[in-house]
Amino acid sequence: MQHYGQVTRLLDWSESFACAVYFALFVSCEKCNVSTQNASIWMLDPQAMNLESQGEGVNGLIALDEEIERADGTVFDARCWHPKYKPPPEDLKSIAIAPDFTNPRMTAQRAAFTMAGDSFVSLDREFPGLVSAKRLRNFILTPAVKQDAAAFLAAAGLDAYSFFPDPRGLEVRRKDEVRRRYEIMRKYYGQAMK
Distances in Å between the alpha carbon of 5 and those of 1, 2, 123? Predict the structure, then answer.
């Protein structure tokens, strides 16, 4: 829904490091100067987050349709995070959830999500214990590292179509191929290529 300008509790994550690198390099910086800006990759341990958020018995990624009995005998019910559901008696904390893979992009990107609690603060502020335990970490890709990261993706054969297996991903792949060929031709033929 964020892609259509709607407010949502969902924040996209990926279980794939390569997908995170691709998004940090190419998707999040569409409007910035990619070569001179830092990029950021966040790493999260969803089991540790759900344990801190919901207590014993709520481990790993949570499927939204499952009811989980906590160690204290209460039942975890994910419907509380739904905007049309009756509000719970206390503020909700953020949780890590496993989606139903409803389209090829989610499968290719190995999608996972966090669902924001009622505070809507960033996860590092909501869960400082995860940060200190290094279960929530931020890795900065400086401009010097970004070329190596792009080389990693190229060596692995990963491009737009790898993460967007649809006509749009194919279009971006084709434009990148043409751009690379043009750069090689300019390198070898110089000024003759105007």
Answer: 7, 5, 21
